[in-house]
Specification:
- 20% of the residues lie in helices and 45% in strands.
- The protein is built from 3 helices and 14 strands.
- Strands 1, 2, 3, 7 and 10 form a 5-stranded mixed beta sheet that branches. Strands 4, 5, 6, 8 and 9 form a 5-stranded antiparallel beta sheet that branches.
- The longest helix is centred in the first third of the chain and has 29 residues.
Amino acid sequence: MAPVGFMASLVATFEAFLGLLTFAIATGLFYGRFSRPRAYLKFSDIAVISPFKGGSALMFRLAPFKNNALTDADVIVSAAIEVIENSVPKSNFYTLKTQLNKINTLALNWTVVHKIDEESPFYGFSEEDFKNTDIEIIVHLRAFDEVFSNTVVQRCSYISKEIIYGAKFTPMYYPDKENLSTVLDLDKINDYQKADLPMMMEEK
């Protein structure tokens, strides 16, 4: 079968063009969806308020769960704290300063630490303050994936009920039996133990 006449040929040409165009678009969409680089990072389900350098600090941790080589990883941590002004709830946003906001290579777990000092919005917060105040810790992490040669981004957040007061994380890596390599146990990313905070934190 073949088209006869100008109009029939025009319709056949348009149909062929439309079919090729649809196939090309579908191919691009599927390739873009499945080839998009991901960070493959696992964040702890909780954050903790731990003793740190004679004071206290807010901490959470993360770890890669695939063999992707992530380099030049940097993290930005923000906090949204709800306050009442003139009987109206209002959220104040703060950028939290971290002890280390960039690392060259992300091979094992990374514990991100925000020291609670005079410049911290949590300065003077007691355990009850953390429980009764609406808080959300917002985490934005960006790193370079050497496999895809592209920048990957991952986000996470913690709310008040996910913040454990007076605790510290336990190690999640250990040497193997031959003591030749390091084993990273992702099942321990949320493991913690109770820890006493300095009295000056309690008195504030």
